[in-house]
Model the fold of this input.
Amino acid sequence: MHPMFERRGLLVLYVALWPLIGALLAALLVGHGGLGWGAALLVSLPLASMYAFVCASARYVAQSTPLATSGALRLIATAVAASCISSAVWLAAARGWNFVLTRWAGVEAAYRDISGIIFGFGVLIYMLSLAVGYIAAASVQMREAERRALEGQVLSREAELRTLRAQIDPHFLFNSLHSISALTAANPQGARRMCLLLAEFLRESLKLGAQDRIPLERELMLAGKYLEIEQVRYGDRLRVEITGDGAGTCLVPSLLLQPLVENAVTHGIAHMLDGGTVTVHAERTASRLRVRVESPCDPDRPRRKGGGVGLSNVRSRLHALHGAEAAVETVEDNERWRVEITLPAVEPQSL
Done:
């Protein structure tokens, strides 16, 4: 179907334009064809209405000879041929309409005197229609190129997110297995319990990992399961506080908090003789979501060099998803370690 018939506003504009073209043809017939205004309008207005359908074919001519791939000679030859053929058809219609006017309305339109005007006018109007067709085709191609570029950006971002998400699993699994290995000799029952909790955690994370984003309440639940695994190792030294404050329905990348609570344990609780509390707190303002992970830390603890993917991974995932609208801030002071994430508050129905 012609796109003009799919867009009502465009169709109305196109139909309204042709009476004006008919009036212009009538003026030519009066000025150069020797007709009176009444006879000229009787000839031109019906002919203009008919030529409107003929000129609609200019779009298909423009599509068959695109500017980008057709040579100049082909473009010129196609335009001239299409214009002459269309105008010849219009001229034949004018002859028939002149016969009707002469026979039934008693109006002599002096066909031989106006045939050259009608033919030349028809070539000009079809050429203009063809130019409009090329402009419309170029506009469609531009929008299509923009759509493909946007799709490419989306696919690239999704690939980056999948790559970053895939980094977390082996990193987390390596650390968990290392913890289990450390418990096997000193606490076999604890090692067994940690294996069971790890299996449950992995089962849940694989279930949610197929989704790009999950509700924050489920992300907090996953963080709680991870900390439950670590509580087997650290016992009473590790205490946990997790609160959501009505932000549970907001969507976040799956396993976004896991590297942060892991850092809170590895770089905080693990170096504290009396342990401490890992606090995970989320709150929502009008359009922003803020999540804070906090734990005590020893300022004199040994610093691990390189090898970590936690914070850099979180930053990269949020940047790929939200760009400059998301931020990750890390603060360490007064023997406290804190990471605060801010990002747009996205509800499921807003996607």
About this structure: The beta strands are 213-215, 238-243, 251-253, 276-284, 288-296, 327-333, 336-344.
